[in-house]
Amino acid sequence: SISASNWLRNPFRTIGSSQRYLLECPAGKDPGLCPVAPAPVVRTFRPGPACPDYFRWIHEDLRPWKRSGITREMVESGQRLSHFRLVVLDGKAYVETYRRSFQTRDLFTIWGILQLLQWYPGQIPDLDLMFNCEDVPVVQTRYFGDKGLVPPPVFHYCGDDATHDVVFPDWSFWG
């Protein structure tokens, strides 16, 4: 079983496995526990002839780092704006929590990453990401760019023209 309360007390730990499982949380179970039930995962995938239209927004969100790339220092500079840091290394997820987020938004975001790791084993690259789980974007454009400062790459559920937050799906709506 995966206990949310135990997991939150030990935020920087392995959350991956070399085995593939689907998480199953049936109704009526203790909401703090989610049993891990082995289930075979079979998928077929045929790539389309072109990237979906939303890829242009991904490129737009990443534009501030197009020339410089993203360094570890840039990622770490986003800690004060973030609720947690998620690292994927060799197919395993590691999480470091900086502060509590609203309800379970952080847990559903992490759960979504775990699902990606299980559905696409060996296909998720190594990642080092900072996440903010609030509703209002936090990386204000006015503090970067013209002043020669590179913004911290912070992933967020929303963004706008006045911010550099990198938009990421809010999976807490689906849970």
Automatic annotation (TrEMBL):
Transmembrane segments: none annotated. It comes from the Eukaryota. It holds the Pfam family Glyco_transf_90. Residues 49-175 form the Glycosyl transferase CAP10 domain. This is Glycosyl transferase CAP10 domain-containing protein.
